[in-house]
Amino acid sequence: MQSIEQEIRQFITDNFLFGEETNLSDDDSLLEHGIIDSTGVLELVAFLEDRYAIEIPDSELIPTNLDSVNCLVRFVNRKVRL
Question: C-alpha distances in angstroms, 41 versus 1, 2, 37, 72, 82?
């Protein structure tokens, strides 16, 4: 079974990097590195809501929650514990 970090990284690789491995660190900004844009954020949110059965309101669509693999992992962990 994959960890949340592995699942998120796999989703990003498959959907935004088209399967190409990169040297993306877990703290690298997905927006600043041009990996995702506003449409990509919506795809990412849809994946997170579906995969982890969580609801992400617009007020939580902020870089602090969504801009790196580590931010995403912390955010999902927080949401699934609620």
Answer: 25, 22, 6, 11, 22
